[in-house]
Amino acid sequence: MSTTLTRADVARIAELARLELTPDELDLFTRQLGDILGYVEQIRGLDTSGVAATSHVVNQPVERADAPVSSLPRRDALANAPDAAPEAGLFKVPRVL
Amino acid sequence: MTSPDARSARTIAREVAAGRQRATDVLEATLARIQAEEPRLSAFNTVMHEHARERARAIDVMGHTPGSPPLLLGVPIAVKDNLCTAGVPTTASSRILRGYVPAYSATVVTHLQAAGAVIVGKTNLDEFAMGSSTENSAAGPTRNPWDLTRTPGGSSGGSAAAVASGMTPVALGSDTGGSIRQPAAFCGLVGLKPTYGRVSRYGLLAFASSLDQIGPLANTVEDAALVLQAIAGADACDATSSPEPVPDYLSAIDRGVSGLRIGVPRDIVGEGVEESVQRAFAGALDRWRDAGARIVEITLPHARYAIPVYYLIATAEASSNLARYDGVRYGYRARLEKTDGLREMYDRSRDEGFGAEVKRRIMLGTYVLSAGYYDAYYLKAQQVRTLLRQDYDHAFRLCDVVAVPTTPTPAFRLGEKTSDPIQMYLSDVFTVSANLTGLPAISLPADSSAGPLPIGVQLTGRLFDESTLLAAGRVLEA
Fold first, then answer.
1. Is B191 helix (H, G, I), strand (E, B) or coil?
2. Disulfide-capable partner of B312 in B304, B305, B381, B434 (CB 3.0 to 4.6 Å)?
3. Domain spanning A7-44: which CATH class is it, in words?
């Protein structure tokens, strides 16, 4: 696997990340992400066969009573929306279909 | 100039509890200092004049139950602007959250208020806490009170500048890779990253969920202990918060370092560390030795891989956490044409709403989690994270705390590292390990009187052993 990153790779990542990058940003990130990947390459040579992965350092079972509790009132949840129909209790977005 | 008393949260709380000072007068003096200092420092995104005045008045009117006054009665405190405050804008210094007013407060904010503290404002940060200089802020950079041409560090740079300039006696920051400790070092403060799980993160705008912790910045170890006491503990709203009992930190700080074994990993504190930092670090070790501690040599063979591991794990988690900023429920939405659909709304809102460093990290994180690269980068980093934890497990058989400088250099100049992300990342070389291992770590001001800028020394302790870190820190203040 090579860490040379092409402009097309970066464009594909941007699409996955839901970012509409400008042509300048594409150029900049192609160079910078390539540099960063080159830098992190150093861990690839370490022997980690049989080593468990750490996803979290404190593993504890967490349980709570299955009891209903109050949650954010709908009006409050909608208060910060860029576009909403509070009377209908809905967020508004552009047409999907 | 700030009177020494106004710099001590402990003193303020005692004075207010004894009725010798009114919370309102303490607050007005604080607001006056903010007004005087803020133009040259830009530490705050929001100053909560009216909210704070209302709180202070309520404290003065209600008084408190005699006997055990609240720990922080009448103490003005600044909180980082990635902590939700009900009814007060919370921006993470990002355009994408401009105008966002949370409907709820972070658990730490609620705890501070219950302890009698008066929250005076929201401090500047690197956008979503991603950075080491507070320059990645949509609000513009914060400046270091010690030298206005330099950064206060980051990402909790606003909180550090607020405390170092005497605007508030204490502040809260968050620390994902050093964001409390590095600014504390750059500004001459005590900065504590508690054990992962020690403090609830409910209401902290998530950056990297397996690494993020909230903690205090203060002028003294005592004040850091006081704030930790107020915010530590389990929380039903944060499943990663720990049920481990909270000890009495204030009574632990005076127990000294007699017999304490301080481990020094000589292999990593040598290379790339500036001479002035080496001297200050050696001076701190001497102080501890004189107070009865024993300095022992240890090795942390995988510590040199901490930065690459950190930037793979933190960005992967960030790319997932920041997916929620989509222009639908809160925050910024791009202006759209009639023909634009949902996809254009997502893509454009996120491109216009996020700054360059945040986009860079979302991109890197998306890449390392993507099909075909996951095992080579993300899984590999998680395995090396395990090796790093094992290094510390071994070290703690030989020593009780690990000492390193907090940063390789004192505060760097504004603009010095902004064009080179890797150079910026390397300023966190000594701090990220505590986040990857979950261990508590504290940055303490070392004797830097030989130079013009503060220098920090860092101690890392065993899980949930903040008390030992605080006690050792107290020895340096003597």
1. strand
2. B381
3. mainly alpha
Give the residue numbers spanning the domain of B75.
Answer: 4-252
A8 touches chain B (CB under 8 A): no
A contact residues 40-59, partner B, Cβ 8 Å cutoff: 40-44, 46, 48, 51-58
* B356 neighbors A31 (Cβ within 8 angstroms): no
Q: Specify the number of domains making up chain B.
A: 1
The string of pLDDT tens digits covering residues B426-462 is 889 999 999 999 999 999 999 888 899 999 999 999 9
Please answer yes or no on whether B344 and A94 come within 8 Å at the CB atom. Answer: yes
ipTM: 0.94
**Identified catalytic residue from B133, B174, B179, B443:** B179
d(CA B60, CA B23): 6
What residues of A are in contact with residue B435 (Cβ under 8 Å)? Answer: none
From B155, B200, B427, B448, active-site residue:
B155
Write out pLDDT tens, residues B304-337: 999 999 999 999 999 999 999 999 999 999 999 9
CB spacing of A25 vs B359 below 8 angstroms: yes
Domain ranges of chain A: 7-44
Interchain contact A25–B (C-beta under 8 A): yes
How far apart are the C-alpha atoms of B456 and B186, rounded to whole Å?
7
Does A97 contact chain B (CB < 8 Å)?
A: no
pTM for this structure?
0.97
CA-CA distances (angstroms) from residue A37 to B213, B367, B380?
27, 10, 13
**Looking at the complex, does the CB of residue A26 fall below 8 Å from at least one CB of chain B?**
no
